[in-house]
Amino acid sequence: MHWKSLEQRQEYYQNWRDNNREKRRKYQKEYYLRHREVIQEKYRLYCLAHKKECAASQKVRYAIKRGKMERKPCDICGEEKSQGHHFDYRKALVVQFLCASCHKKWHLTEGVLQKLAWG
After folding, report:
1. From residue 11, how far is each of 18, 27, 99 by CA, in Å?
2. 87-104 per-position pLDDT tens digit
3. What DSSP line would sit under 84-112, residue for residue?
4. Where are the chain's structural domains?
């Protein structure tokens, strides 16, 4: 399919994703079950290379599980399903809750600007 602009292509795929959530979830679950060992090994290797990040995420998951912290909707768009975003991994329980989409956008915009500013 030929796209007139990047925005047109992004809008098409965003609409498709929004209209096919259940289909995508089913496919993702099946994919995970088929490739579980490879995915878990990649995550293990990632955690070996990024110990601070994984430790901070684990602390947030544990705090939520134990009721010490409440998972909140996305601070930007209000989506119920959210992820904890750390500004400083040394402060593991200080997070901003963002949905996957807003979290990705943050890293593509603010995160890049922050890295440029702080080196």
Report:
1. 10, 22, 18
2. 889 999 999 999 998 888
3. EEES-TTSTT-EEEE-HHHHHHHHHTHHH
4. 53-118
